[in-house]
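Q: Give me the 3D complex with nicotinamide-adenine-dinucleotide.
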Amino acid sequence: MILTETRERRALSRILEAVARFRKENVVERTRQFQDKVAVITGSGAGIGKSIALLLASSGCRGIVINDIDGKKAEQTAKRVRSLGSEAKVVVADISTPEGAQQTIAAASQEWTRLDCLVNNAGICRRGNIWDEPEDQFLKTMYINLYSTFLCLKYASQIMKRQKSGSIVNISSTAGITGGTMGPSYGATKGAIIALSKHAARSLAKFNIRVNCVAPGYIDTKLMRDVFQEKKQRTARWDIVPLGRLGKTEEVANAVVFLLSDNASFVTGDVMLVSGGRTS
Ligand SMILES: NC(=O)c1ccc[n+]([C@@H]2O[C@H](COP(=O)([O-])OP(=O)(O)OC[C@H]3O[C@@H](n4cnc5c(N)ncnc54)[C@H](O)[C@@H]3O)[C@@H](O)[C@H]2O)c1
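A: Here is the predicted complex, encoded as structure tokens.
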């Protein structure tokens, strides 16, 4: 009886050792992926952008530029990033202006002399109908969602072209494919982001720069809670999502970090949906 217990214990400890070895090897592998890499993430003070920053930091990214229009939120993300072992530089700027975008992109090369990864994430969403969408709301959404993406793509590609390497992910939305249930400006900007990304992917491929999109469905963030203020409005979304729930920001971050990484070395000009089956 004692012998059997000892044997079982030995077998158990061998299994536990193997699990620990597997975990260690995988953590090291993930950590190596972004070693020496420098990233810029727009709108990373909260929500999806914040989760991307934290996942990149825990994947060993050397330096991350945390851009947000809200300085307090950006500082909070930077603090978490540093606690995970990466360096962080906060740039408080409106990414929809040429000055703000230039300042944000330049921060990477000023701090770390390079730029490997860019995530165009900052965005806003307003509800409305085609017949009553205020003109200024349409333009504001175009500026923050689309023009900012163009500006950052432009300035970042100038640096990445010289390096002859880089990976860019632009955050679109399922609304960019379906037209969406939000305001007309939202789906229009998110659809245009897909076209802009495909254009950029074609023209930057010869410089070894990849450009992809991630199109999230309903994800539980402040943006989502602002649009659907009542809980019952949010839970009503579950019915139109085959997986029957809202997505988590970490689930979007996993897709973004995959596309940024060398694991996606033959993927460019593509759109990855993270929507719980929303468009199926
Ligand atoms: N949450 C969803 O359900 C969902 C679905 C599809 C796509 N998206 C997209 O994901 C991206 C992130 O959304 P989220 O849900 O995390 O939103 P969020 O509101 O939680 O976070 C967005 C962040 O961007 C910042 N920001 C806004 N305007 C800015 C500007 N002009 N300059 C710099 N920073 C600015 C905000 O301060 C905020 O910290 C957006 O592009 C959004 O359209 C979200």
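A quick observation: The chain has two domains: 1-33, 35-274.
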